[in-house]
């Protein structure tokens, strides 16, 4: 009996200490319009290439910054700008990481950032859109289209800030940006993915 009471008390204490679960929505009518900024602790950019025809190989960027001018009622008027520091790249292989950051590939010393600035937003249903923009990588700027899906929006249970999250996917040919090493053994086509969380500015 004493153990049961103790267990109940412990469970109640843990419940009080734990943050409330986020009540996320995918209904644009419930999302606040305004200027949102990237939550860098919960935003990631990934690339994937085919490595010698044997396996996909993925690298991940962090410390991302940027802004989202979000207009849920008029999504075509929304605007996105993202900056990705190349030095933040991580892969499980230090040798591969050093090679990717060298002038053989991304040349982080000369080109420290990758940026994406939207130029056109085309809604596709209430929670999807095609976002076309200028991608600058390795000193070259070219248009890229991202397939964007709303993941959810609502108040962050930790800091109470209005938060919205998206997943964006697209492809590019790295040779068009001057990154040509080992093409085609390492695929020219690069798959891009952005897992983005944005917090509304007060």
From TrEMBL:
Residues 35-199 form the Lipid/polyisoprenoid-binding YceI-like domain. Keywords: Signal. Residues 1-17 form the signal peptide. Coiled coil: none annotated. InterPro entries: Lipid/polyisoprenoid-bd_YceI, TTHA0802/YceI-like_sf. The keyword Signal applies. Gene3D superfamilies: Lipid/polyisoprenoid-binding, YceI-like (2.40.128.110). PANTHER family: PROTEIN YCEI. This is Polyisoprenoid-binding protein.
């Amino acid at each position: 009996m004493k153990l049961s009471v103790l267990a109940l008390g412990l469970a109640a204490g843990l419940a009080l200490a734990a943050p409330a679960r986020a009540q996320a929505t995918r209904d644009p009518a419930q999302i606040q319009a305004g200027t949102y900024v990237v939550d860098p602790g919960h935003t990631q950019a990934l690339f994937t290439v085919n490595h010698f025809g044997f396996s996909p190989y993925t690298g991940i960027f962090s410390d991302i910054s940027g802004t989202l001018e979000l207009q849920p009622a008029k999504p075509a008027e929304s605007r996105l700008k993202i900056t990705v520091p190349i030095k933040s790249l991580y892969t499980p292989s230090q040798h591969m990481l050093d090679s990717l950051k060298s002038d053989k590939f991304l040349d982080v010393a000369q080109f420290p950032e990758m940026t994406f600035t939207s130029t056109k937003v085309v809604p596709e249903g209430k929670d999807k859109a095609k976002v076309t923009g200028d991608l600058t990588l390795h000193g070259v700027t070219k248009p890229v289209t991202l397939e964007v899906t709303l993941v959810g929006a609502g108040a962050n249970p930790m800091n109470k800030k209005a938060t919205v999250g998206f997943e964006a996917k697209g492809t590019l040919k790295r040779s068009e940006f001057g990154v040509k090493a080992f093409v085609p053994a390492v695929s020219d086509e690069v798959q891009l993915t952005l897992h983005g969380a944005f917090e509304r500015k007060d």
